[in-house]
Fold:
Amino acid sequence: MTDRLLDRFSFAERIVHWVVGITFVVLLATGLALSYPSLYWLTTIVGGGPAARALHPLVGVVFGVGMVAMVGLWIRDMFLDAEDWAWLGAVRYYVARRRDRVPLAGKYNAGQKIFFWLQGGLAVVFVATGVPLWLPEIFASSLLAVCRLVHYAATLGGGLLLVAHVYLGTVANPGTARGMVDGQVTDRWARLHHPRWHEEQIR
Structure:
């Protein structure tokens, strides 16, 4: 019997997701390459050091615009409700795959919602600290030193979130990534991971 497909993400949502994801990877690679000599070889991805220096802030602008669009598309679904707090209280069972002990998740579980807010907060930090670093002649050297430190710290945090996001969307939960490829997920996947949302789709 064929497992039917459910529509999960629109074309616009998928485009925005990939714009944000790809630009962040480029920013992460070029930023690390320009900051750490041992990683300078990463600049070859974009054509060398001068190209990386020129592209980094420009790609940052695209990333920032993409994040604004992402917030506009998803923010209404990302506020935590009572069920989400209950889900967080049972997250140890979710990790242990004891789904019978985990409250039913809607379209997004509490972990995904928290990821959204962390990502949004980091995006604000990236832009707020990145602009002075892009235009150093306008800002005081003391401010630039603080911006550089905070920018680097945010980069490490964002990199860890990216690794976790990719792992959870592929290896840990097979079938999840498909939603961001063709916008659909299987009925079985929806029942397992987002049962409350699944019930809403089949009414």
